[in-house]
Design brief:
159 residues, alpha+beta, Peptide Deformylase, five-stranded antiparallel β-sheet, three-stranded antiparallel β-sheet, 8 strands, binds nickel (II) ion
């Protein structure tokens, strides 16, 4: 396993649409493990392929709630219900947070890290994380969805 470099906000790769994975082979499994390790290193709850420079439809999520992390390939929202206003950040935007409207509940179909078909019902924080990460696969960033005027820099940094 290895830590991968996280691409930051202005990186054009974050704006590209990621490609479907055809087979969950050893390279994809290694990528997923690296992404998990990278996300944990930076205390993130989610990370998507394009954020480590890989334009493939892969995401990892860990809510640190005692459940196993999710390692998902080709995730797709097949149902979405309700809405919630949430504070959100992104590992590609260190120290930036904004309010975003996300679905309250989503149903996602994907392949897991073993290539098996799974269906996940995500509510609240999990619905938020799944929506955020799947957006990344389509080149959509949380700042695109934020409620105008809510962007905050939590750690002041001079540029
Ligand atoms: Ni993000």
């Amino acid at each position: 396993m290895a830590i991968r470099e996280i691409r930051l906000s202005k990186d054009e790769i974050l704006r590209k649409v990621a490609r479907e994975v055809e087979e969950v082979d050893d390279r994809i499994k290694e990528l997923l493990q690296d992404m998990l390790e990278t996300m944990h290193k930076y205390n993130g709850v989610g990370l998507a392929g394009p954020q480590v420079g890989i334009l493939k439809r892969v995401i990892v999520i860990d809510l640190y709630d005692g459940n196993k992390p999710l390692l998902l390939v080709n995730p797709k929202i097949i149902k979405s219900k309700g809405e919630q206003e949430v504070d959100e950040g992104c590992l590609s935007f260190p120290n930036e947070y904004a309010k975003v409207i996300r679905p309250k509940e989503v149903v996602v179909e994907a392949l897991n890290e073993e290539g098996k078909k799974v269906k996940i019902v995500g509510k609240d924080l999990l619905a938020q994380a799944l929506s955020h990460e799947i957006d990344h696969l389509n080149g959509v960033l949380f700042v695109d969805n934020m409620i105008p005027g809510t962007l905050e820099y939590v750690t002041p940094e001079k540029e």
